[in-house]
Amino acid sequence: MVHRPITAREVVMRALLITPGTASGLSLGDTLDPVPAANEVLVDVEHVSLNYGEIGFARAPEAERGAVHGWDAAGVVARAAADGSGPAVGSRVVTFGGGGAWAQLRAVPVGELAVVPDDVSLAVASAVPVAGVTALRALRRSGPLLGRRVLVTGASGGVGRFAVQLAARGGAHVVAVSGRGAGLAELGAHEVVSSLDDVGPLDVVIDNVGGPQLVRAWELLEPGGVVQSIGWTSGEPAVFQPYSTVGPAKSLTAFQMGSDLSADLEYLTSLIAAGALTVDIGWRGSWLRYDEAAEALLGREVTGKAVLDVE
Ligand SMILES: NC(=O)c1ccc[n+]([C@@H]2O[C@H](COP(=O)([O-])OP(=O)(O)OC[C@H]3O[C@@H](n4cnc5c(N)ncnc54)[C@H](OP(=O)(O)O)[C@@H]3O)[C@@H](O)[C@H]2O)c1
């Protein structure tokens, strides 16, 4: 991609826009260039990644028609923040925000980005924000991990693969539950299972799947343990047996990843640069193929992350 100064005449860009009635809830169209606030940089986007949640949200009734969709993007700073904070023009950055990512240009607050180390590609960096920070924060919220038994459900997916690696790095005994299992032992899982039938007691559960797996994980949770309820890809209800929530204290807690990602993005990309964290990109292609990528992700065909190259 050629990086050039933005001029007053260049006010229209291409972007993936919320479009009700289409298969993915998206279409590629023209929209006005974003106008950065004083604390925002303007980024020339090169790669974006898809998350399960935002694909679902694009098709939700409350999604705003015509809005630029997407949370994760990586690219090069085309204009620095007017207040003097953040990286200079030409810096390679990974960015996060609740919308605005899947476009040729993105305005993003300096608190929601990190400069990408030289030896990490922007395609890899674009896969990190939502999935990587969710895994990191959910594990941190679960207390010390050294020697504890941590279960990760939906382990082949975006959040799951980061969680397996980070929990192992934190010293946990990691049990990965996955319908596919692909490469999870290599990422540090001590046990890879396809059901929870023969799993032992657990201290922490990072749950991406919900439904019956969540119920079973709760039954296996030790006193003092915690379930972080991150997602519900099973789409199935969770039916708890009478009195299964009564007894020695343990908790099931709702999880939301939050904001102010800079420090966590810097940490995760530094691990990648050091070879201590692997990012698996299971689907990659031009953003013209966004429908195909979304279908593959929702169809459970992507191992790790799906990344689109912005043209
Ligand atoms: N609360 C938050 O702030 C937050 C942040 C990020 C993500 N999330 C949520 O967390 C969940 C995971 O996100 P993600 O980006 O990692 O998604 P993903 O990459 O699509 O991975 C989800 C994984 O769930 C499993 N799965 C999918 N469909 C399933 C089904 N019908 N039954 C059982 N397992 C199924 C699959 O794992 P296996 O093939 O290995 O079984 C799949 O790889 C989503 O619900 C997402 O919305 C929430």
UniProtKB/TrEMBL annotation:
One of its GO terms (cellular component) is cytosol. The keyword Oxidoreductase applies. GO terms for molecular function: mRNA 3'-UTR AU-rich region binding; NADPH binding; quinone reductase (NADPH) activity. Residues 21-308 form the Enoyl reductase (ER) domain. Keywords: NADP, Oxidoreductase. This is Alcohol dehydrogenase, zinc-binding.
